[in-house]
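Suppose you are handed a protein chain with no further information: no name, no annotation, nothing but its sequence. What can you learn? This example shows the usual starting point.
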Amino acid sequence: MIQKIGNKLIDGFHYLALFGIGSTIVWTAVHDYMAMMKSGHATLEDILLLFIYLELGAMVSTYFKTHRLPVQFVIYIAITALSRHLVIDVQKVADNFHLYLLMTITLAIAILSVSIWLLSYTAKSFGCPDDLGTKDS
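A reasonable first move is to predict its three-dimensional structure. Written in structure tokens, the prediction is:
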């Protein structure tokens, strides 16, 4: 009985925390979107930020539905954040250009892209360990 109560409390906290995180993502995205509307235009920085919010929302939604956190979402967010940094912040320091910074960020994006491909390939080829019993033979 104590185990059941503990599990219910943990599930309740889990859903409450996910709702709080999801609400915060929506609230922040709407706030930033309204600021874009007020300014009358959206910059590339703003659009990439909206993509980050979209991926965060998809990650919370997937975690809420499946109780699993696919690593791919975190990698997509990292790729978008690095791309945003590459496009926006590197342009701002154009007079003090750092080739090594550009190369490092580009290499990191390439490594993350390969990791997405590798995760997708292995998931298709070998499946998820939890799905082994449900996979058709």
